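Run D-alanine--D-alanine ligase through structure prediction, thanks.
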Amino acid sequence: MRKTKLLWHKITHWEYWPYQIVYLPVYFQYGYYALRMRSLFFFSLANTGFSNGGFFTTSKKEIYDTIPKEYYPKTLLFQPNTAFETILKSIQKEEISFPIIVKPDVGLRGTAVKKIETEQELKNTLSSISYSFLVQELVPYSNEIGLFYVKLPNENQGKITGIVSKEFLTVIGNGKNTIQELLLKNPRFAFQLETLAKNPKINLNSIPVENEKVTLVPFGNHCRGAKFIDESHLISDELTTTFNSICNQIKGFNYGRMDIMFDNFSDLENGKHFKIIEINGVISEPTHMYDPKHSLFFGWKELIRHYNCLYKIAKFEEKKGKKPIAYSIGKKEFKKHFEHVNLLSK
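Sure, done. The structure for D-alanine--D-alanine ligase is below.
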């Protein structure tokens, strides 16, 4: 019965639908733009400061290196099989303290992102990593948004086209029900039960006391139980001015979503007490569209609007004599992407 209810919840809430259906009208729009620019990979021109515009296989560390250091958390890149002692020395040299974040250098919607509490836990985690990975200091702020930014390359002033806030997978205790029972009351959380059961840090049979908040997944990823809330009404002249100043310091960045953690919104508007967790390039989604209050038609409208911006940026760069990546390279990137997906899924 529970599986049937969850299936029905998926069917009646388009935010859970396969992207092949959600993106249906975009395929026609994309095909039209590809024909006009004579390239299936025209979008690679949008962010000339990132390799391939920030396509699937772009290194996160490469993108971090384009951002002024004061705007993002301390981040170290390591190759698989790097000696634990070497990693530990590097962490200590950079004065990064536990807990820390470990995540793939080439990511996939929050897959394999882990919060590591101790040196021993880090050592245990490293034994199962077979890909390039990042060690990152834990940001001390509790609020997270995704901020979508668009700018034509010939302009100094861009615009914020959407803001999404993220509610982490958190249950509130009543002194009676176990964590598992609390999860089952919310379909969004119930979808994550099988994954959470595999986490040795989580005791699903424990009973939180009255009003105790237990955050089970401290990451704002939809596929890991976070709820996306459209906060685009928070776009202001002050916020736009702040992020125009920041983004103008990131060479060749014209299109994408910044995931940001911050203390309070007033300080964020003024460029204080925040960190850019990462920047997603040309494959970014306007994730504010996934707010449960929005219809599928709203989602389609936002996708079409953003792909139109992507095309305009690419077209401008083409007129300057730049060329998108060749079909053969794009095909190889797709192959690498699917190989990496399989690697992260193991």
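The mean pLDDT is 90.
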